[in-house]
Amino acid sequence: MTGAHDKLAILDEAQDGSLVLRFDRTYPCPQTKVWHTITDTNELSRWFDPWIDYEASSLHFTEGARLSFVAHDSHILHTQSGEVTRADPPHLLEFARASQLLRWQLTADGGGACQLTLTITDDWRTGLTANAPRVHAMLDALRARLSGTRPPPPDLDKLRRAYEHTFR
Which SUPFAM superfamilies match (predicted)? Predict the structure, then answer.
């Protein structure tokens, strides 16, 4: 794996003992375009979590909004609830989803590029590390969506092995 968008996430411990999975990416487009793509339900449905039924879910990313992530198949994934804890367009979006806190921080990176830092905080190490390859692949799909291309199918086995080696 090469390129800035393929950097593996970092797993760290917060002061309160919870774990933080951190992804850093630079996207070659304006911050406002990235913001729109991570907060618009129609855009999310094209690159974010494929398990979610975006038409049935309630995903309005304004501060204090209640969120509902409804799965396509409730036998595989139950509906997850959450709340937007912080929203400062187009700089910061933070929301709870089930036991996790997701924080999307966007910064203009000069020349029209945008730096995205995504942190996912949880107390459950196994869940964070098991989901790292899937989140990595979603961020690569976000890159493709922003550039108007189709991402190649992710090699989740290769990513899983890379993350297992990194987090052991």
Answer: Bet v1-like
